[in-house]
# Entry
Amino acid sequence: MSEQRNTWHAEHKAGLSRGQRAADVLRNGMGSWPFVGIFIASMMVWALANSLVLANNAWDPYPYILLNLFLSMLAGLQGAILLIAAKRQDAIAAAMAQHDYDTDVQAEDEIRKLTAINNQQLEILRELRQLLAERAGKATPQ
# Structure
């Protein structure tokens, strides 16, 4: 019967707001190769549709001013989302550093206690050796 222990990461993830989760999902999505591939493919489809397929009735003829507007809006949103995600990542790093520090302080305290116990045991061993040496000295006739 093993008891499942909540890690710091699980507790932190459970405490995220919906906006924080959304920022993480968007950051992870925009920072991936599938996003880059889909983005390039959609730009090619847009250009082909407006230049070749709908040459006379294109909704955004060359120089693609509407596409340029959409890309500018996308860049603005991506910048804001990435800044939000970076800010969250800094907060996570600071919390993890604090957690590591707390763990180090606890470990140092435990090491001090163990060192004190070890020193006590060494002192007891010295006393036992001394007693054995004294008894061995009394047991041998002179």
